[in-house]
Amino acid sequence: MTRNVDAGTLLEVRDLRTHFATADGLVKAVDGVSFSIRNGATLGVVGESGCGKSVTALSVMRLIERPGRIVSGTIRFGAQNLTEVSDDEMREIRGNSISMIFQEPMTSLNPVFTCGNQIAEAVSIHGGMSGGEARKRAIEMLAQVGIPDAKRRAEEYPHQLSGGMRQRVMIAMALSTNPELLIADEPTTALDVTIQAQILELMKALRERNRMSIMLITHDLGVIAEMADDVVVMYTGKVVEQSDVNTVYEHPHHPYTRGLLASIPRLGEKRDRLEVIKGVVPNPLNLPAGCLFQRRCPSAMPICDVAPPLQEVAPGHLSRCWLTPAGGPPSVGEDPGTQVALDAAVALSVE
Amino acid sequence: MARSEGLPVPGSRAARPATEIDEVDLVPVRTYWQLVRKRFLQHRLATIALVLMLVLVTASIAVPLIGGDAWFKTSLTHGPKDPSSLAAPLGYDNLGINIFFRLMRGLQTSLTIGFFAVLIIAGLGTTVGSIAGYVGGWVDNVLMRIIDIVLSLPTFFLVLMFVAFMGQGNVFVIIFAIGLTGWTTAARLVRAEFLRLRESDFVQAAKALGASDRRIVIRHMIPSALAPVVVASTLGIADSVVTEAALSFLGFGLRTPEASLGNMLTNAQDYFYRQPLWIWYPGITLILLVLAASFLGDGLRDALDPRQRIEA
């Protein structure tokens, strides 16, 4: 069987499942996630802590360690399926075609190397560059990420730099090999707000210049609005809503997405308290039956005891909720489409 | 007030051209080795220890070179009663051997044994420790149990047995005996560092860059795990020197005419009452050597750690 991946798609993840066999039981950290990233576009992955965002990213990099395991699914990157390539092939892809930057710039740089050497190291892992060329490339990259006096900075150790500077070095390192995809796992979370804006601007500029795609993982919807073209909202290891960024912000469908949006303070709006989503994420070891969000959901209905499928509520807009596209309760019996979906879901849950 | 306007005040911010510097750098740039030197020199005892060590090492190399065979040449014209002179600062022993030259030769032997034993300790310890710490799982378990077994044996008697069966008085056998029993502490230290480093963000980042396991271990983890090995090694020099002295003192180490600090102590025993200084010479040399090695280790630990930020 050959799947038609359209020409504009760089990465296509289908039905990815990554499970962790812990001593307390099986944790389905990523449970049937599908999404794709277009060439040159930015995909934002949003969700609370522990919803599987980072595990999804690490699965794409194949950096899941025991007791975790990619149980099933395909990750199509170009012509390759990353779940099937050998370890050596994967190592060639990592850092070369797909790079990653991490949340903690304070600890993600090796304290015993100068910044220049770290970047040169990244270059020399993949390219047959000589030491001198790699050094030149390192200084060039440092200048490209907006570090003033790059030549001198290249001689400095990570502990001599501020957090924002270190994140720039991390970005320089990740981009030194001209990757096609950059996975950024909460790249600005550890930085203060003014530096955050600078780093986001930098990532945007470099995306244009290098014509790469970005998979941006964050819990900050402001960052998503700033950066992303498409958005995937995750909850307890599943995608609950998926669309382009405007649709998600203007017509959010899933109550979880609405809750997330409502909990952002808005400029010029006067409110005594911020909205919060009541309750906590269910224990991944003991997930309730039916819709996983129903206990926290303001619009929970009897039908929510049956797990809803991820279905299209508008062209290109997917949501894992029983609410009608307009946002009302499903009128069982009147709309044949809903009835069919319901029957299928009931059959599934009985199974 | 005649204050010329368009003239910039020297040193003021306005005097500089507007450059795009988004973060002010407060830390003056220094290289790693400049920092290491600075931190080391701040440790006064370590600085003294370094000087002492250099003196001892230089003397142990230079003096036997100058003295030639003086360290074992007996003489009928010299004896314990000769006053100390420039040619023989510590006088002559009962066989007419120049004690100073003999002492320096003994120091050379002890330092040689200490140095090479520590090479084995550091090499074996780092290898075993890094494999156990990086691979983990059952490999780690097996290696750690082997270390437990080695540690449960009384080390000195192990060395004694090894030397007794493999060849007494042989420098290489002594080096191997000390090396093969002493690596366990270094291995544990390296393993502990590796367990910590394996989870660290920068190792994860190196993996995400596509670095191979070998590269991660050799280039990223061992340099970070090296500080405790350096400390263990310098302390190991002290330990090895003492072990060799004890072996020779018991008659299992080097024998006369070979000279080591240990067998000089043994020989001096017989003259304890008549020539008490003969015990003091090798004894004090041994103490100085051990102290120098220990304080040096301390100073190096503080200085080499790149995570430490001691600024002036």
Secondary-structure blueprint:
The complex is a heterodimer of chains A (351) and B (312).
Chain A: E1 9-22, E2 25-38, E3 42-46, H1 53-60, E4 68-77, E5 80-81, H2 87-93, E6 98-101, H3 115-126, H4 131-144, H5 150-153, H6 163-175, E7 181-185, H7 193-210, E8 213-218, H8 221-227, E9 230-235, E10 238-244, H9 245-250, H10 255-262, E11 311-314, E12 317-319, H11 336-350
Parallel strand pairs in A: 3-8, 3-9, 6-7, 7-8
Antiparallel strand pairs in A: 1-2, 1-4, 4-5, 9-10, 10-12, 11-12
Helix pairs in contact in A: 3-4, 3-6, 4-6, 6-7
Chain B: H1 32-42, H2 44-67, H3 99-135, H4 137-152, H5 155-166, H6 171-198, H7 201-208, H8 213-249, H9 261-269, H10 277-304
Helix pairs in contact in B: 1-10, 2-3, 2-10, 3-4, 3-6, 3-8, 3-9, 3-10, 4-6, 5-6, 6-8, 7-8, 8-9, 8-10, 9-10
Describe this structure in words.
- The complex is a heterodimer of chains A (351) and B (312).
- Chain A is 32% helix and 23% strand.
- With 351 residues, chain A is of the alpha/beta class.
- In chain A, the strands form two sheets. Chain A has an eight-stranded mixed sheet with strand order 6-7-8-3-9-10-12-11, sandwiched between helices. Chain A has a four-stranded antiparallel sheet with strand order 2-1-4-5, with helices on one face.
- The longest helix of chain A has 18 residues, at 193-210.
- Chain B is mainly alpha-helical and 312 residues long.
- Chain B has one domain: Orthogonal Bundle (MetI-like fold).
- In chain B, 67% of the residues lie in helices and 0% in strands.
- Chain B has helices at 32-42, 44-67, 99-135, 137-152, 155-166, 171-198, 201-208, 213-249, 261-269, 277-304.
- Chain B starts with 31 loop residues before the first helix and ends in an 8-residue tail after the last helix.
- Mean pLDDT of chain B is 82; it is low at 1-27.
- The A-B interface holds A 61, 63, 91-96, 99-100, 102, 104, 107-112, 114, 121-122, 125-126, 146, 148, 152, 155-157, 159-160, 162, 164-165, 170, 173-174, 198 and B 19-23, 27, 29, 31-32, 200-202, 204-212, 215, 219-220, 223-224, 306-307, 309.
